[in-house]
Amino acid sequence: MHEMSLTESVVEILAEEGRRQGFGRVKTVWLEIGALSGVEPEAMEFCFDVVTRGTLAEGAKLEIVRTPGQGWCLDCEKNVALSERFGACPECGGHKVQMTSGDEMRVKELEVE
């Protein structure tokens, strides 16, 4: 389960920001996860509860914001919605689609004390 190591990295980011910005407690974390990132939101939620124990984010609420997959089709020269990596263009059926978004994972926002 790679979500555990991803969640540990998120908590490290929170701790670093806490030191840098001088806050002592995280109340809510908004985590943006792309639909094509390969990350399971439910697994992240479970891991978040476990990994945050004893940290400045213990008891914090995790809000997951899903972002859709998007790509640029080189054949029909259109921005298109993607539902899978390396899928065909939904407009023309071509297979020359470059993913432009939907594979990211980032801390979008924090509510802190």
Features of this protein?
single chain, 113 residues, 3-stranded mixed sheet, 2 helices, elongated
Q: Overview of this structure, please?
A:
- It is a single chain.
- The chain is α+β, with helices and mostly antiparallel strands.
- The protein has helices at 2-21, 41-51, and strands spanning 26-34, 61-67, 69-73, 78-82, 97-101, 105-112.
- Helix 1 (2-21) crosses helix 2 (41-51).
- The longest helix is centred in the N-terminal third of the chain and has 20 residues, at 2-21.
- The two termini are 31 Å apart.
Largest sheet: 3 strands, mixed
* Pattern of helices and strands: HEHEEEEE
Distance between the termini: 31 Å
Strand segment tally? 6
Q: How do the strands line up in the largest sheet?
A: 2-1-6
User: Approximately how much beta-strand content do the residues carry?
Assistant: 25-35%
What is the 3D shape? elongated
Q: Provide mean pLDDT, rounded.
A: 95
Broad structural category? alpha+beta
Low-confidence sequence ranges: none
Radius of gyration: 17 Å
Helical coverage, percent range: 25-40%
Number of helices: 2
